[in-house]
Amino acid sequence: MKLEILANRLEVESRIRDGAEKILQVLDTGRSDGKENLRKEVEAQLDTAKAKIATLHAIADQVRNPQTSSKHRKKPTTSLANGKRAMFSTPVPNGKQKDEYSDKGKTTLNQASSLVQLLTTYRTRYQGHIQSSPLAYIAFSGGESSPASSSRSSPPILNDQDLDRSRTGIISALVTILQRNLRVRYELDIVEVLRAITPALADYASKESRAAAYRLIRHLIIDGDSIDKLQQFGLDWYMVRSLARDNKHAVEKEQVIKLIRAHVEVGSSRRSPAVGVGSSAVPLSNAVMRALISVAEHPEDQFRHVVLATLAEIVLIDIDLVARTEGLRVLLQCLVEGPHELSPVLANAFLYLIDAPRTRSYLKPGSDLEIALSGITDAYGKGTGNAERMKSSAAVIAAMLRTWSGLLYLCMDDMRAIRSVIDTLSIPSLDTRDVILDLFFQILNIDKGEWHQDFIDGRRLTVLGGKGGLQRISTHPPSETSTTGTKLNLTHQYISLLLLVLIQAGLLEALFGIVEETGAPTSLSKKATLLLGEVLHVANQVLPSAIAARVQALPRLFAMAAEHDVYGDPRKMASVTLSSIDSFRRNMGRLQRPMIQGSRERANSIEDPVRRNQRQVEQNKLKATMQIDDKSFQDVLLKTQVMVQKDYAKWNVEALIELMEGPLLNPKRLEEAFRVLKFGKRLISFFHPFSIDRFSSLTKTMYNRRFVRLGCALITTLVSCPEGVRFLTSEDPLLKQIAECLNQLDPYNPITVPNPIFSKERLSDTLCYGYLEMVGTLSAYPEGIELLERLKVFTAFYHIGELSGRQDLNKGIIENLDYSSGGHPRVILSKALTSNELEIRLFATNHLIQLIRTSSKANEWTLHLLLTQLYDPAEEVCELAAQYLEEACESMELLEMVVQMQPTLDHLGEIGHPLLLKFMSTAVGFRYLYKAGYIEREMDAWFEERNFQYVVQVEVYLAQTFASHLGDTEDALTVPPHFYGEMAKTELGCQVLSDKGHFAEFAHFIRQHGLESEDLDVIVKLKSVLWAVGSVGAHIGGLPFLEDEGIIPNVVEIAETSLVLSVRGTAFFVLGLLSSTIQGAEMLDELEWESTITPLGETTGLCIPLDVAGFVHIPTWDCAVGPAEPSRLTPPESITESQIMMAISNLQNTVIANEAARSLTRFKSLHRAVFASIPLYYRALHVISTQRYRLPVRRYILDLFDIELDADVMATISGLQKSLYQPPLPPPPILSSLTGSRDRAESESGGANVGLGFGMGIGYNPVIEDKQSPVDKPGHGPDYLEDLEPRVNGYNGNMASAPPTPKQINGADDSDDEGVRKSTNMLLEQPKKGAVKLNAITRVEGFDAASDSGE
What is the pLDDT of residues 106-145, one digit of tens each? Predict the structure, then answer.
């Protein structure tokens, strides 16, 4: 394959070489006047081709003879006479070849420069230019040219198609150079390259040529200066034209979009170092942005998804640009209309925007972001086809309610948005109700296990132990699920507030309404009952007792169930609901009780009698089987079929295992079976490794796995008594053969076997791995250890551990040996932990971790081995050991044992940081780290930098937790350890913190900048300080710091009044930390914040405000000023051009768009020359770049003109941008909202508003009349429409009067040209008949319009 590729490249280079030689022959035979530059260029290309050919031959030789070529490799020459090295060769920037590498860079740069010069010769489109650059023709024509003809005539001339193909190939080659040599990007002059490739961007070029040019420009962008140079060439208009093309030009549009993304990634810059989200500047013009937005709102465009994602990125960088070009409206509509897979992404973007007051002002409260709810609230009556839309809307609502800013935003206006979603439960729509109920299960983090469906189906939950898959994310407070201390849970803190908000918004009443309905399906009422039971359960765990008691009362249900005067369905439904809730609560603890890892089951649990009876039955059965009589023993032996026949397939394996675990444990019966009868010898001979068609030859399957269990049971039985040990030692060769099989792989054994028993194939495909399990069974007994030592099995294990490539065998040895007693097995494990193979070390470390986890008590030897792994040269092993040590140190016994060993963890860096924080929580560990200088060093690091990193870490944890299901991100549930919080756990730590004075500085910063809402750096530091204060105050030793500074009221004020919503959330979580102690809970109670306390009087680290409605209140804001008035152009001098621009402007008004399209078609047929006017073309470009037009309309407008956009046209447009510019008029009145209507104010000149339609483009002052229409209005929200019809030739554009006919405008009849009629019919559809004869609904491609159709 490589040789074929090299052969193809060699053929191409050979053609170029031959062509260059022929061109030189032509130049030598003819006149050479004025062709010196051409000769130099051809000679340079000839040298380059020869160099490439030599390099390709060398590479081909290396491929054919890799050993010979590596030994006798020649150094490539660097002389200019022999040519330059190939551009695709790999640079080697080492010391010996530094000069050579520099020459290679120069060679590549020269090649790129030659290609740019070659492109420069192609700038002329017409014939006659090929003589200045004949090489391309030779290369692309295959080198077919006779010397005789070349000597008699000039080189052949390329046609337009060949020229375009040649230019595209050269641009692609230049891109290849830039991709492989990044240095060339900085050396090339981007201005020179742009001048050379300008013809490739013209309309007359092919779409492949334009795509290649855009791709080259993208690779030339290296910084903001290069983007500034791009804008000087009018590249924006080329991009606008390309984005308006249809899907047939997908290759071109793709490269334009990639170029725009490169602008965003490379050219974006912050306006100020202190600003936040949406406050940077994106180097995109309004024209390009509006073209991009038109693609985003066109549902049939194949690039819509990526453009929407790009707009979401831009809105987070430069919201001013998106708002100025009316892109927010498109993004808001996509929240509901789709694409549905992008709706949650767009929702997250808006949630970032509403966090800060500056970016929040771009959204109108109560209408803009609430559009996301319409997919559910407006779903009634829309049929089953609306299910996908409802699910998408539910996902958006869940994303909003799972973030702090989204929750507070939806709680505006007395929780109006949340109430509207809850009120939808009263609509008699099964699909809508089902989606909403699933939504509440999701946002409350209620895991719907398998038993949930059983509950909905009406089956009783009485099976002991439940069914599989009943795991549930526990909503119990940490104090009830952990005995080693409480873990503060941010998720519980947030859910407590969310649940209280939903309850106050009427969730319980809505659920009551569903269960009381007589006509509702049983499954829906059961699901509502289940959600009601879950809500009550969660409320009982996370809400304060006083609030939870009011929720648990259920006065409405109890009143209806106890009303004796009411008979029938309502009372019955209430009773059934209460009974179901009671059953749910009674079974909750049994079905979903949280188990503590490593703890035994409670002795007083409901399963204890069953377990006790089972143990008693097993003991009685064992006694009975050991005391079996002779007759019964013979019957059992015969039942196994071992004495009857030799065919192992007919043996009763289960009976054999019962025999091994029962009667044969009696030494007398064992001696009888193995010495007197043939049973024992036949059975054990089956396991001999060298027996043919026996155990070692069986295929490794689940069914044959029973023979492995039988072998291990046999070994256990034999080792349990002296007779069995004697039998294994002197009478049977089983163990000797196993030892011999291991010696077959011993590298120190000179005897080799072609197919050893423990080969890779046999170990993976047969039951030979069972011998390792048998050896592991032997290692669990002292007698077995003695047998293995006598047979030198451990020696073989030591030698096998040194084998490379036998990880499978080493893993089997490690996992099967028993390490309960000291000796050889532990030595083998320690040797595996320091093996040369990384895979073995990782496996042994994992196995060691499992040993520690399953051990009933802490073993010092296992911890010593695990601490040794912290010094492993591989980072993966160190990280694995450190992570488990952090987990294990949750146990105070293990933590103290590890601290006493005093490991050195400085070399681990960030990996060992959490473990060191664990050490700080004990007095012994803190003293050890303080003496080592760690405390002093880390305090300075946290004060200067790590506090900010902690903010990012916590916010990422919270985002991951609420973005996915809680069960998938268990690590994100708890607060990460904070350095200052760990210091506050010990008395010495508090003393050091006091002496350092950091806390006093934190308190001062909170008092000074607690309500900051503009400066991003101050806001981030405020969050870091709040987390530090909360971590210190979460412990009894740190609470006096807060009391001395009196800082708790300031934190409460921040949580209740800060304008930055994320800062309010941080303060809310910090208050939860402060409630972790009884003293902190009492202080918060004085400030009207109630903490959740268990019935035993323990705190849970959860607290909520008593006035929830006041806490979630956000002050209203004034919306930002709408899009600024675009630049104005001087009015056209020709009346015809004015009328054409009026019609183009009317195309944006969907009411009169069809009539405007007809007018433009007639103008095109009568005044075709006008549509070749570049000034008029520029006016059209200006209009579509300053106002909103849908993509098909933009394409239609640009296709009207008989102008091909090229360098000459761009030069003319550049001059028109200055000559037609008109200074702006006085600013219009400030908008009251971004989506509201403008204040009507007549200008001094014409008495009409300025700002929409034609007036924005050419200086006319239109009369605007409001019309109610479902169609979007440019520059305004979707609920308003302004119809624009400017005054032209004395005509007042009033919709009350009939518009002028085409005859009045054009001065001609309607039957001008048949071609015009055909083109019009292609654009317009026939009007549809309506109820009113004078009105018809017509359609222009891409938009709907209602227009008068009178005669």
Answer: 678 888 888 888 888 766 543 344 443 444 443 344 333 3
**Nearest CA among 1154, 1199, 1082 for reference residue 1320:** 1154
Size (the chain), residues? 1351
Residue 1191 structure tokens: 């993509």
Tokens of 201: 């961007």
H/E stretch holding 1071 reads: helix 1061-1074
Helix or strand run (H / E) with residue 1336: strand 1335-1340
| Cβ-proximal residues to 1182 (8 Å cutoff; 6+ apart), any chain | 1126, 1127, 1129, 1257
| Residue type at position 356 | A
User: DSSP letters along 341-400, please?
Assistant: GGHHHHHHHHHHHTTSHHHHTTS-TTTSGGGGGHHHHT-TTS-GGGHHHHHHHHHHHHHH
More confident residue, 954 or 11: 954
- In terms of Cβ atoms closer than 10 Å to its own Cβ (0-12, 13-18, 19+), residue 1171 is middle
198: helix, strand or coil:
helix
Two tokens at 828? 């083998």
Written in H, E and C, the secondary structure of 1212-1246 is: HHHHHHHHCEECCCCCCCCCCCCCCCCCCCCCCCC
- Backbone CA torsion sign across 364, 366, 370, 374: negative
pTM of the model: 0.73
State residue 1093 phi and psi, 5-degree precision.
Answer: -130, 140
Cβ burial of 1283 (10 Å; 0-12, 13-18, 19+) is: buried
Answer whether 143's CB lies under 8 Å from 19's CB. yes
Task: Please report the pLDDT score of residue 498 as a whole number.
Answer: 93
**Residue 936 has which token pair?**
């002093």
Contacts 24+ apart (CB under 8 A), 604-612: 606/464, 607/464, 607/465, 610/464
Tell me the C-alpha distance between 89 and 76, whole Å. Answer: 11
Q: Tokens for 1343?
A: 């938009």
Asked if residue 281 lies in contact with residue 301, where contact means CB atoms within 8 angstroms, the answer is no
Q: How far is it, in rounded angstroms, from Cα 1102 to Cα 1073?
A: 7
Kindly give, in sequence order, each residue whose CB lies less than 8 Å from that of residue 1247, ignoring residues fewer than 6 positions away: 1261
Please state the rounded mean pLDDT for residues 575-584.
70
CA distance 448 to 965: 11
- pLDDT band for 568, please (50, 70, 90 cuts): low
Identity (one letter) of the amino acid at 193? V
Type and span of the H or E element at 1032: helix 1016-1033
What would the two tokens of residue 1259 be? 């200086």
Whole-angstrom Cα distance, residue 772 to residue 711? Answer: 11
Confirm if 188 and 116 have CB atoms less than 8 A apart. yes
Higher pLDDT, 1271 or 624: 624
* C-alpha span between 166 and 238 (Å, rounded): 21
Residue ranges with strand state E in 820-861: none
CA 850 to chain centre: 32
Dig out the tokens for 1290 from the structure.
Answer: 């004395």
CA distance linking residue 1065 with residue 654, whole number of Å: 62
